[in-house]
Design goal:
The protein has 418 residues and is of the alpha/beta class. It has one domain: Divalent-metal-dependent TIM barrel enzymes (TIM Barrel), CATH 3.20.20.150. It is 43% helix and 13% strand. The chain contains 14 helices and 12 strands. It has helices at 3-15, 21-29, 69-80, 115-123, 151-175, 197-211, 241-251, 268-278, 302-313, 333-352, 356-364, 368-378, 383-393, 401-412, and strands at 32-36, 86-92, 127-131, 179-183, 188-189, 220-225, 236-237, 254-258, 282-286, 288-290, 292-296, 320-324. A hairpin with a 1-residue loop joins strand 10 (288-290) and strand 11. Helix 3 runs parallel beside helix 10 and helix 8 runs parallel beside helix 9. The chain binds L-rhamnitol (RNT) and zinc ion. L-rhamnitol is lined by residues 38, 43, 56, 131, 184, 225, 227, 258, 285, 293, 325.
């Protein structure tokens, strides 16, 4: 049977549950997912090329890592050719591109440092998102940035944040799409602090100052990402969940939830509906924590499916900004990108193919017996046949064909990078 024939047969099985597969595909095609640029070079960037700091870690040494802007762009192109759907590209400030020999200072970053990225994005019709980079830099002192007691350090990073707002606005103007600018700082302590209050008070002040910079609120959407702990920062995190949600609520910005940033039995999928009741918009980093914030490649697993299910069931595709955030240096990096982003798309497709109204009615009428029976039957529907057809309509290889492309690219391009 051809992919089309299998699709036609599968479509009927979904129809029995009242689900229109054509409609699901049409919706999915328009949902932007912001692909993180940092999978391609293990979060190294181009400006300072310092060792990764801030309590995050890449492990592994798979050959073929991108070493230059051109290599990273080539790799992103390859990955995007294997991922169906609508994309945005998520950049970090550390991926600034200077003139040959130029030393880029993060407190003086300018839109021109991202001109090449804008050109790249425009040519491919990609929206752009942005992140100031508060780590892997000599101005991180004693593990602190915006919460530092050292005014020079704090000033430096406030200035960085302000520059980044300008760059985010430039991205929005150039691409015609709003730019999510996500703030995450690694600040924290390895051991028990004497004062948990002062660093948080300084972080709050620093954020106020950054956000006092004039920017177009329609075009730039600031988000604040919380965290529970980092490697070497196990005892205290300045920007914990309570801090970030409260700050975002009071200051009209978005909270960003990364599903690696909570205690292992907490689930972001359960938090989404609560946040949606109090915020117009929220943002997500989809990752896969294995025992800690390990940032493994996103799989088509229960939590990824549950997260996407919540977004769709709550009718919030236009209120939740979805981005990927993981970095595996132990496998082919193009494959890591394609696998993770394809899995986010699959989870979205799965959610769009779920008869939410039927299931919700069962819950509301107290019929938990039929609810469980239906939820389990739905798991057996031929999602793969719809997925393959979706890939075909998007001109992206389906089945294991995409992986053959990865192998060819490794042979012809990545393996030559020595
Ligand atoms: C770190 C946060 C943060 C980073 C990126 C590189 O724990 O998840 O989002 O992964 O900014
Ligand atoms: Zn994150």
């Amino acid at each position: 049977m051809t992919i089309k024939e299998r699709y036609v047969a599968a479509k009927k099985l979904y129809e029995d549950f009242g689900v229109d597969t054509d409609k699901a595909i049409e919706v999915l095609k328009k949902v932007p997912v912001s692909m993180h640029c940092w999978q391609g070079d293990d979060v190294t960037g181009f400006d300072s090329r310092q060792q990764l700091s801030g309590g995050i870690q890449t492990t592994g040494n798979y050959p073929g890592k991108a070493r230059t802007p051109q290599e990273l762009m080539d790799d992103i192109d390859k990955a995007l050719s294997l991922i169906p759907g609508r994309h945005k590209l998520n950049l970090h400030a550390s991926y600034a591109i200077g003139e040959p020999g130029e030393t880029i200072s993060r407190d003086k970053l300018q839109p021109r440092h991202f001109e090449k990225w804008v050109k790249f994005a425009r040519k491919r019709n990609l929206g752009l998102d942005f992140n100031p980079t508060f780590f892997s830099h000599p101005m991180v002192k004693n593990g602190l940035t915006l919460s530092s007691p050292d005014e020079n350090v704090r000033r430096y990073w406030i200035s960085h944040g302000k520059c980044c707002l300008k760059i985010a606005e430039y991205f929005a103007n150039q691409t015609g799409e709003p730019c999510v600018m996500n703030i995450w700082i690694p600040d924290g302590f390895k051991d028990i602090p004497a004062d948990r209050f002062a660093p948080r008070a300084r972080y709050k002040e620093s954020l106020d100052e950054i956000l006092s910079e004039a920017y177009d609120k329609e075009k730039v959407l600031p988000a604040l990402e919380s965290k529970v702990f980092g490697i070497g920062l196990e005892s205290y995190t300045v920007g914990n969940s309570e801090f970030c949600i409260s700050y975002a609520a009071k200051n009209g910005i978005m909270p960003l939830m990364d599903n690696g940033h909570y205690h292992p039995t907490e689930q972001v999928s359960d938090k989404i509906s609560s946040i949606l009741l109090f915020f117009d918009k929220m943002a997500l980093h989809i990752t896969r924590p294995v025992r800690w914030d390990s940032d493994h490649v996103v799989l088509f697993d229960d939590e990824t499916r549950a997260i996407c299910n919540e977004i769709v069931a709550n009718n919030a595709l236009d209120r939740v900004y979805i981005a990927s955030d993981y970095f595996d240096a132990g496998i082919n990096r193009i494959s890591a990108w394609a696998t993770g982003l394809r899995n986010i798309q699959k989870a979205l497709l799965n959610a769009l193919l779920t008869p939410h109204n039927y299931l919700k009615k069962l819950q509301e009428s107290g019929n938990m017996t039929e609810l469980m029976a239906a939820q389990e039957e739905l798991k057996m529907l031929p999602l793969g046949d719809i997925w393959n057809y979706y890939c075909e309509t998007e001109n992206v290889p389906s089945g294991m064909d995409w992986f053959k492309e990865v192998q060819k690219y490794e042979e012809n391009t990545l393996s030559k990078r020595i």
